[in-house]
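REVIEWER CHECKLIST
Item 1: Sequence provided? yes
Item 2: Single chain? yes
Item 3: Sequence as submitted:
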Amino acid sequence: MVEQNEGQIKQIKSINLDKDVVSAFPYISLGTLFITLFLLLIFGGWYLSSSNVLKKTEEQIGSVNTELSSLKDLDQKTTAFSGAVKNIESVLSQKTRWSPIFKELERVTPKDIVCTSFSVEESKAVLIEGYGPSLGSVAKLLAAFSGSKSFSNPVLTSVNVSDNKAHFSMTVTASLKEGK
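Item 4: Structure as written out by the authors:
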């Protein structure tokens, strides 16, 4: 360091470059090394954490893509199932409902009449065959069909009496309802 007194320069301490700089060099090098290592640790940690975050993000993207493909498969299955349900509903709406006809047949048939055959043609003509204890029972059956909501135009096609039974064959027109 240098001091200045009224125009004079006075040297207080001189620096010996060989001695002062060379003796401080290991400390400067060591400080630089520590700073470099510290910076390497910080940047290395940042790099590793960013690559870890990137890996986790890629894994999440993969799992989301897997879920998306399974949802697409489910959507296709749902669409196919909906189409099948619509087809079944269409078929059922065109199907003839037989249970009301059988309920009406049971309701109008007298207790002493036994039906042995029941068949329906495409023209909705119903052929019924059976037997009863007397011709009077067959006449009651014919009258019951005349007053029915589900059957009309009863026609007795044949009657014969044998074995103390009146065997009959008749046709009626059925009002078959379609749909549910």
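Item 5: Key structural point noted by reviewer: The longest strand covers residues 151-162.
Item 6: Recommendation: ____
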